[in-house]
Amino acid sequence: MGVWEETVMAAAPGAFDRRDGRLYIEDCPIEELAERYGTPLHVISEAALRARAREFQAAFGSAWSHGPVTLLPAVKANYAVALHRILAQEGCGADLFGPGELEVAVRAGIPPALISLNGTAKDAATIRRAVELGARITLDSVREVELAREAAQACGKRAEVRVRVRPLVSSEAGSEPYGGMPQREVFGRYKPGIPWEDLDAAGAALQAPELDLSGVHMHFGRHTIDLDEFGHVIDRYAEAIAELRERWDGWEPRTIDIGGGIAHHADPHGRGGIATPPEREYPTVALYAQALCGRLAEGLERAGVDPAGRALEIEPGRSLFGPVGVHLSSVLASKRQESPFQHAWMELDTSQTHLPDIVLERCRYPIAIDGEDPDAPREPYDVVGVNCSSDVLAHGERLPALAPGALVAFGLTGAYQDAGATNFNVLPRAAMVLVHGADSDVIKARETIDDVLARDVVPSHLQSPVSGAPA
After folding, report:
1. pLDDT category, 459, cuts 50, 70, 90?
2. 8 A C-beta contact, residue 206 and residue 161
3. Helices (H), 6-80
4. Which of 190, 188, 186, 236 is nearest to 216 (CA)?
């Protein structure tokens, strides 16, 4: 079994397939998708997204028996409105940052009561918009408490808020995304969350009649795949909730949000030049849910806080969207050299600008070739893109000789790739297509060069023609 089968197909069973050598997304051959929409192209499987959401809902619904569970997918991971409409149909809400992501949730039709406006340094206009809608605001500072009060007074309605805290994590275990820095230090440097020194002031302000303090929030992040480390953080979270009760005259949260942070199956983070996945035991969603929910309930009970009736919220991003997407590209050319040393390049029409986590997260995405001959000889190539940097998409990938026009698929790319794409070298961003069964639709249009340059303005004093310039 190859890497594609062990990673992409295993992470989203039935959504990605190979039939007689041809690659399929649900019942759409990627050859037809490329011909219809062009490449480079982001493609999302609707069936895989729905299945992934249901997997989270079932796992946490089973593991947390004390109250309702709501999935709040992280809009930042993939802000295509159509995808959040699908998730809204599945009963999900939204975890979001800033006015842009708030507008995504509104356009997707997500009920305001299931929206959590998160993040640091929110401005007054964004907080007021959330209050007007009836969305919840996750407060990050004493300043935001006052902004929420002012917005509620201006709107003539009570604002539902919750506080974001950073539990006092003491783990010395290394954080993988931060080069092995102790998680205690990484978490302590992480900017979101009301500082402990400000909690008394925040609590006093939260007595205001304009505010309904309904819950508490934290987010640990994708620092590890060790469930014991997640359990340690959850233990500290339960202790933090108990401390808030002591500081705030017996207040207890109706809703507890535990953030996201789980690494999905075959997470490509940090693999860099590694062509095959390392031998790691990634926890399933079910094991993740059991570990976190069990430790949270135990920690609350130990601290004297009854978990009964408390609603639980979970905010997956990369783990929800990552496995449900692939990125399609076409071969432009290949070349090789013998001197000063042997080396070969396979040139594609995509780029790190379309797959930014190759640089930002040192990701190594699984690669598959459409219609390849399994018996064809292979040799190592640097798979490279079209921007002017080295633009290496995969080092030393063993590939057969590929003619121009051959289709290459990168798996596990449904999260953060379109969201983080840039226009370096004035490269238009790729289209995004949603596949549902044998049908497909564009859900993000392909940019043109005119789109990219639309922000440019030439001042009036520079308007005179330049001698010799093309008309």
Report:
1. very high
2. yes
3. 10-11, 30-37, 46-63
4. 236
Structure tokens at 72: 């709040």
Rounded CA gap, 334 and 401, in Å? 8
Read off the amino acid at residue 195. Answer: P
Q: Check if the beta carbon of residue 410 is closer than 8 Å to that of residue 329.
A: yes
Indicate the length of the chain as a whole number. 471
pTM (predicted TM-score) = 0.94
Tokens of residue 14, six digits? 């039935």
Where is average pLDDT lowest: 164-173, 246-255, 337-346, 439-448?
164-173
The pLDDT assigned to 362 comes to 86
Q: What is the DSSP letter of 7?
A: I
**Distance, CA of 302 to CA of 85 (rounded, Å):** 40
Whether residue 282 has pLDDT greater than 80: no
Closest CA to 366 of 344, 383, 343: 383
Instruction: Output the pLDDT for position 185.
Output: 78
The separation between the first and the last C-alpha atoms of the chain, rounded to the nearest angstrom, is 57
The answer to whether the CB of 52 falls within 8 A of the CB of 323 is yes
Question: What type of residue is 467?
Answer: S
